[in-house]
C-alpha cells in the first residue's frame, strides 16, 4: 500500500535546522513533500533547493537578496512570494490543509508566521523559540483557536515531551533542562573581557547557526528555553531548573512528584528531535545518530554559576516580570548578538545592554501580536543606538 507523503513548509531552509530538515526529507522522501522553502539572504542556496524540490513555493525575505535572485534565476520567479514577512505569510497561507510548518527562522521574525499557521489549524514544528517566548500566551491561544499543534524541535523540549508521554501534568515536580555550558564553562570570568568572536562561535558539542551559538555562550539560549518550557508544559518558572551537563547526551529530564526521574538520552544530533516533531510525536525508523551506552563518556552534572551566565538570570527575571519584559529581553538580546557578530560589541557588554533595556519596561503584559512586535521594534531601535554608542566610544 502506498502511504501519502506529508506536505511540509520549511521556513529557514538555508540554516542549520533547515539543512538538517532537508537531510531528513532526502532520506525519507516517501514520508515528506516540501511544499514551501524560505531563506533570508542565501538566494543561490535557495535556488538549488528549489530545483531539487520542484513542488515548493519560495520566499527570500531580504529585498536585496530577492532582487539578485530574480536576476539570476528567472526560471524560478513564478514560484517566488513577495519579500519580508508578507512572503512568509503567503507560504503559510498557500500550504495545503494538513501540512506541517517547520519554523527554523531565527528571532522574533518567526512570530507572525507561527501564529498564522496555528490559526489555520496547521501543526508547527517549532525550532524558532524566540517566536514562542515573544508571543507567549498569544501563541498558545492561536493554537487553541485554530487547532494547530506545536511540536518542539529544541532537543531539550523534545526530550521533555518524550518523557512526559503518558504522565499527567500534575505528577511533575520539576523540569531539568540540560545545558552544555558553552565554550566558556571553564574560563575564568575575570578574563571574559578578552573574549574574541571566534572563541564565542566555537561551541563544544553542537554545530548551529551563529545567533544560537552566541546565545549558548551567554546561556541566554537556556534562559529562552526556560521560558519556552514554562509555556509549552505549563510548569511554573520556579520549577524549571537548569543543569550543566557537558556531554550533551542527556537532552533533559523530568522529576516526578514521587522523586522518580525520567531522562531522554542520545547522541547530540538535531535530526532526531526534528524527526520526532515531523512525525507528530511518534518514534519513526531513523538511521542517524547511533548512540551506544557502552561507549558513553561519564555523565556529569553541575549547577550553572550566575557570575559566568548573567543572561540566564535576566531571562528568569523577565519571565517573572511578564510578557512585555520578555519581548524586551529578546529584542535587546537579538540586537546585542547582531552587534557582537558585526564586531561592534564585546562579549561582556551583552548582559549589561539587556539589563539596561529591561529597566525601561513600563508595563507587565502584551495583548496582541501587533503590540508584541511594536515593542520589539521600539526596543531594537534603542538597543541598536546603544550598540552604536559603544562602537563609537571604542573607535
Ligand atoms: N541550530 C540548531 O541546532 C538549533 C537547535 C535548537 C533550536 N534552534 C533554533 O532554531 C532557530 C534557527 O536556528 P539555526 O541555528 O538554524 O539558525 P541559522 O543557521 O542562522 O538559520 C536561520 C534560517 O532562517 C533564515 N533567517 C534568518 N533571519 C531571518 C529573518 N529575520 N526572517 C526570515 N528568515 C530569516 C536564514 O536565512 P539565510 O541564511 O538565507 O539568511 C536561515 O535560513 C533559532 O530560533 C534557534 O534558536 C536551533
Q: Can you walk through the features of this model?
A:
By secondary structure, the protein is α/β, with parallel strands linked by helices. The protein folds into 3 domains: 6-152, 3-Layer(aba) Sandwich (Rossmann fold), CATH 3.40.50; 154-181 and 219-304, no CATH class; 305-395, Orthogonal Bundle (Rna Polymerase Sigma Factor, Chain: A). It is 46% helix and 14% strand. The protein has helices spanning 16-27, 43-52, 63-72, 84-94, 111-119, 129-135, 137-146, 155-164, 197-200, 210-218, 220-233, 271-278, 310-321, 323-341, 350-359, 369-394; strands at residues 6-11, 32-39, 57-60, 100-103, 123-126, 150-152, 172-179, 240-244, 250-256, 261-265. The mean pLDDT is 96. The structure holds NADP nicotinamide-adenine-dinucleotide phosphate. NADP nicotinamide-adenine-dinucleotide phosphate (NAP) is lined by residues 12-18, 39-42, 61, 104-107, 109, 127-130, 154, 206, 208-212, 270. NADP nicotinamide-adenine-dinucleotide phosphate binds at residues 12-18, 39-42, 61, 104-107, 109, 127-130, 154, 206, 208-212, 270.
CATH topology type of the largest domain? Rossmann fold
The end-to-end span amounts to 68 Å
CATH superfamily of the largest domain: NAD(P)-binding Rossmann-like Domain
**Number of spatially distinct domains:** 3
What is the β-strand count? 10
* Lateral strand order in the biggest sheet: 3-2-1-4-5-6
Low-confidence stretches: none
Global shape: globular
Structural class: alpha/beta
CATH domain class of the largest domain: Alpha Beta
How would you sum up the major sheet? 6 strands, parallel
What is the helix content? 40-55%
Mean pLDDT equals 96
Assign the CATH architecture of the largest domain.
3-Layer(aba) Sandwich
Q: Sketch the topology as an H/E string, one letter per element.
A: EHEHEHHEHEHHEHEHHHEEEHHHHH
Which small molecules are bound? NADP nicotinamide-adenine-dinucleotide phosphate
Question: What's the helix count?
Answer: 16
> What would you report as the Rg, rounded to the nearest angstrom?
20 Å
Strand content: 5-15%
